[in-house]
């Protein structure tokens, strides 16, 4: 029997401490991440909104929008994919549907957060969160809806900014009691705060090391030292790709050709290598040859 994505993800957490999760906003970047040796992938809600729809990360994309990107990525790689489910797209029935649909699309698990439906990026000011009871209900709805016992349910708390460390940890503990497999401690400022989360919790804790946010760019050794088990880089490659693309567009416009930026490009051969292009072409050649011999 093939292993479920959720089981693969659980094994990856055990085998890699901390486990790095890199954001892959499309199938091709996911293939590159897999090829260079990453063990787990992440589909960012901000990434789906920004890259696939040109929208800000304000809860404007739908479950179907995200599932489409999940299917594309899981169809192209064998790595487990953790998915950003934002607030779960509604009440208990919607959250249950999110679990089932994401499982069907091939996700290994998701994280669901305690922001109000009108959410924003976790590193922006003035976030509003729902009550602890409501967040616990979200987690319970997700846990009850599992169709694969290994589908990984991560509870994200955005409470630190508004309510402080003790309240955020208390929430996280309540989510664990409700069945969460892990805690995503959002917008944490210091290693000591991570240590406080990991000391208080019996499940793995994820650190979101997103750039230009509230959290310093701690490295894996520092984070492992305070007991963090997963480290997330949700938009790192996306940000770099964007800057590279902008540079190319500007250069073509300014110079009338692309010569100045060719060196910054992945070559055709490199692209084909990641795509296994040549194995397809060999097959095509042999089919053509068979046709001619008839
Ligand atoms: C992790 C995150 O939820 C995402 O959608 O990728 C974002 C990342 C970001 O905006 O930098 C977040 O809210 O932290
Ligand atoms: Mg998000």
Task: Explain briefly what this protein structure is.
Homotetramer; dimer of dimers. With 294 residues, the protein is of the alpha/beta class.
Tell me which oligomeric state these chains represent. single chain
Computed CA radius of gyration, to the nearest angstrom = 21 Å
Class based on secondary structure composition and strand pairing: alpha/beta
Q: What is the overall shape?
A: globular
Bound molecules: alpha-methylisocitric acid, magnesium ion
Major sheet: order of its strands?
Answer: 1-2-3-4-5-6-7-8
Query: What is the mean pLDDT?
Result: 97
Sketch the topology as an H/E string, one letter per element: HEHEHHEHEHEHEHEHEHHH
Percent strand equals: 5-15%
Main beta sheet, described? Answer: 8 strands, parallel, barrel
Number of helices: 12
Number of strands: 8
Alpha-carbon distance between the termini?
Answer: 40 Å
The helicity comes to: 40-55%
Name the poorly predicted regions: none
Pathway: Organic acid metabolism; propanoate degradation
Family: Belongs to the isocitrate lyase/PEP mutase superfamily. Methylisocitrate lyase family.
Cofactor: Mg(2+)
Organism: Rheinheimera tilapiae
Any key phrases for this structure?
single chain, 294 residues, eight-stranded parallel beta barrel, 12 helices, globular, binds alpha-methylisocitric acid, binds magnesium ion, lyase, magnesium
């Amino acid at each position: 029997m093939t292993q479920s994505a959720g089981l693969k993800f659980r094994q990856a957490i055990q085998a890699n401490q901390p486990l790095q999760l890199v954001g892959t906003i499309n199938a091709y970047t996911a293939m590159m991440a897999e090829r260079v040796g990453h063990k787990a992938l992440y589909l960012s809600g901000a990434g789906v909104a920004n890259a696939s729809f040109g929208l800000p990360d304000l809860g404007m994309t739908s479950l179907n929008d995200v599932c489409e990107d999940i299917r594309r990525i899981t169809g192209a790689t064998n790595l487990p994919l953790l998915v950003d489910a934002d607030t779960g797209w509604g009440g208990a029935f919607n959250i249950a549907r999110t679990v089932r649909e994401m499982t069907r699309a091939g996700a290994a698990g998701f994280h669901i957060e305690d922001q109000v439906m009108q959410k924003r990026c976790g590193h922006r000011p003035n976030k509003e969160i729902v009550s602890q009871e409501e967040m616990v209900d979200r987690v319970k709805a997700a846990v009850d809806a599992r169709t694969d016992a290994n589908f990984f349910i991560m509870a994200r708390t955005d409470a630190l900014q508004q309510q402080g460390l003790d309240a955020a940890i208390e929430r996280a503990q309540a989510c664990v009691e409700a069945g969460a497999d892990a805690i995503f401690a959002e917008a944490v400022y210091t290693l000591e705060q991570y240590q406080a989360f990991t000391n208080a919790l019996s499940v793995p804790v994820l650190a979101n090391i997103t750039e230009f946010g509230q959290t310093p760019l701690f490295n894996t050794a520092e984070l492992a030292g305070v007991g963090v088990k997963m480290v997330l880089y949700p938009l790192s490659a996306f940000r770099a790709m964007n800057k590279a693309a902008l540079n190319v567009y500007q250069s073509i416009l300014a110079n009338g050709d692309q010569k100045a930026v060719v060196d910054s490009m992945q070559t055709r051969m490199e692209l084909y290598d990641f795509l296994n292009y040549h194995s397809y072409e060999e097959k095509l050649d042999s089919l053509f040859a068979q046709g001619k011999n008839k």
